[in-house]
Prior knowledge:
alpha+beta, Trefoil (Acidic Fibroblast Growth Factor, subunit A), 6-stranded antiparallel sheet, two-stranded antiparallel sheet, 12 strands, alpha-L-arabinofuranosidase activity, signal
Amino acid sequence: MVFCAAVAALALIGVALTQLGDRPTTPSAGSDVRLPAAPMLPPVAAAATPTAELPPVTSATASRSPSPAPPTTVAQRRRPASAAVTVATRVPGATPPRKPAAVPPPALRAGAAVGLELVAAPGYRVRHRDFLGRVDRIGPDSSALERADARFLVRSGRADAGCVSFEASNYPGRFLRHRDFTLRLDRADGSRLFDLDATFCPESPGGSGVVVLRSRNYPDRFVTESRSQLRLDPATPGTAPRFAVRSPL
């Protein structure tokens, strides 16, 4: 079958070539030879090639170099100077010094040398001057005479052993006593009246080391202070002036 078809095709080609050889090559001047019109083919649109649009390059953009990335800074927190850590080191075998024991105030006991400070006026002490009892400012910088006038020796009460009497340290034999309700420094005369006037019974409403002084023969009267003078006035343990028992200066 294939062979027959090929022979037929060759025969047709030969006939066609014979006919073309018989056709004149140049048409005559008067002849009107029309050539078949060429078939109109639809216009072929050129395939659109996608192009990527780039932004216009300006001189400023072209000349600008890329900015370097900002450096990464790690903030370091500094410790304030006030927060410095102090490490205490203990030396092996070292013994810390002991604090000296607090010296208790002297008690109003027989034989003790004391000073009496007015609690309401720190620094002011009981003293004698011109043989009168009074309260003056007496301190370590005061004269030797003033400091001696403010030093008393505690004696057992002349009229009552449960009370006390105050003998001047710089005038032995003279005691504080009241006369006409005024405190004086008088020499002991051995009389019962003198012994009663020179005897005072201490009471401690303010605790240890603080006393009020009640008269032995006038139980409703206490040693008081008025305009620096020592007197014997009516009072109570809660209203009478308080005296702190101090070491002598």
